[in-house]
Amino acid sequence: MTKQELLDCHQRIIPFVHNTAVLTSRSIDKEVNAQVFFKCENFQRAGAYKIRGAANAILQLSEEEKKRGVVTHSSGNFAQALSLAAQSLGVTAHIVMPNTAPEVKKAGVREYGGIIYECKPTVEARQSLADEIGVKTGATFVHPSNDNNVILGQGTAALELLEKQPDLDFIFCPVGGGGLIAGTALAAKYFADTCKVYGAEPYEVDDAYRSLVSDKIERNETTNTIADGLKTMLGDKNFPIIRALVSGIVRVTEDEIIAAMKLVWERMKIIIEPSSSVTVAAVLKQVKEQPEGFQNKKIGVIISGGNVDLSKLPF
């Protein structure tokens, strides 16, 4: 995927996405002794960055493919994003969701016109049902993260961040299926070649960390995390990008995730979901553990989303 392809993608999706705000917090800067710039995709359409990749993927389909619709599997954010992008383009969206997905995210899918099919909360169950729907309807499968058009779309969040703050030393973002961090790494490579990209992961779903150690795609052995958007695994399209361009993965505990979520809600007065809090927790941890490398630096943080089930707050 080239620099021009990323630029073309950005232009293509402009009518369908928000160029979200980049916010700062003096109190958080003081706490970490660094300048932190938050790219607030919690203000994005459908409440998360994933509308970027979803819109790009649908826009790249032929007219005949659009008529037959699209199908995906997702715990929530990509489900909502693909539903909204499809609705905006007059395309039918079939959405496979685990039966454990947050009700607020199911409600969002329904609001955007997506047709929900529930399954057991395993990667195998998701993919099997999505394949079955594709055969029955002729819908094109759009993977939430392991798709080149999706990766390019997700990379536009970091591209916009670097347009506003081109001198970043680091960008941190969460790692679930790997689409966002792969796109972010491409954006950094092409538009800020001295900027290092770090991923953030819960210890409970640390497959990306282990994949970089073993040099092969690892699976999650548990999914016992509050960060429901990060329970998926890497794919063969995004892992080579991550392996080549990402400097490391920072793992955080569930308590650290909750503390970071509370910190941002209290200090910045914005709603971020647990998957976004993972990234903030990783920055707090990395700066504390390696102050010589991160203090007094300029750090970008991709706040990936703000879709929170308010009936299940962890504090």
Automatic annotation (TrEMBL):
Entry GO MF terms: ATP binding; L-serine ammonia-lyase activity; magnesium ion binding; pyridoxal phosphate binding; serine racemase activity; threonine racemase activity
Protein name as it appears in the record: Threonine dehydratase
InterPro entries from the UniProt entry: TrpB-like_PALP, TrpB-like_PALP_sf
Cofactor: pyridoxal 5'-phosphate
Tryptophan synthase beta chain-like PALP domain residues: 15-305
Organism (species): Maribacter ulvicola
Family label: Belongs to the serine/threonine dehydratase family.
Keywords, comma-separated and alphabetical: Lyase, Pyridoxal phosphate
Annotated PANTHER family: SERINE / THREONINE RACEMASE FAMILY MEMBER (PTHR43050), SERINE RACEMASE (PTHR43050:SF1)
Pfam family, one: PALP
SUPFAM superfamilies, per database record: Tryptophan synthase beta subunit-like PLP-dependent enzymes (SSF53686)
